[in-house]
Specification:
It is a single chain. With about 90 residues, the chain is mostly helical. The protein has two domains: about 1-55, no CATH class; about 55-85, no CATH class. It has three helices and no strands. Helix 1 packs across helix 2. The chain starts with a helix and ends in an 11-residue tail after the last helix.
């Protein structure tokens, strides 16, 4: 897991263009930490080889595996932390 975390960190630094910078200003750090955690889970937990700079949409218009897992986990958190939301009658 540590080796994958280091590899993901290095991919992030390269993809974000931070390799030659001494100081980096990050406006929303949660975007970075979320992606690092998601990639560690995808690689170590599921054996999926996704990299940092995967676009959210594939060439054929479908979602990438990275984006689809992000969507599922975001909705899953809402249901787990606020299950009463599922009982609200909403028009479909």
């Amino acid at each position: 897991m540590w080796a994958q975390s280091i590899a993901i960190y290095r991919e992030m630094v390269a993809a974000e263009g931070w390799t030659d910078l001494k100081v980096v200003d990050v406006a929303i750090v949660q975007r970075l930490t979320y992606n690092v955690a998601l990639l560690v889970i995808m690689r170590c937990g599921f054996g999926l080889n996704c990299d940092w700079s995967v676009p959210s949409q594939a060439a054929d218009g479908s979602m990438s595996i990275h984006e689809s897992i992000r969507v599922v986990t975001a909705q899953h958190l809402i249901v787990n932390f606020a299950p009463w939301l599922m009982s609200i009658p909403l028009a479909k």
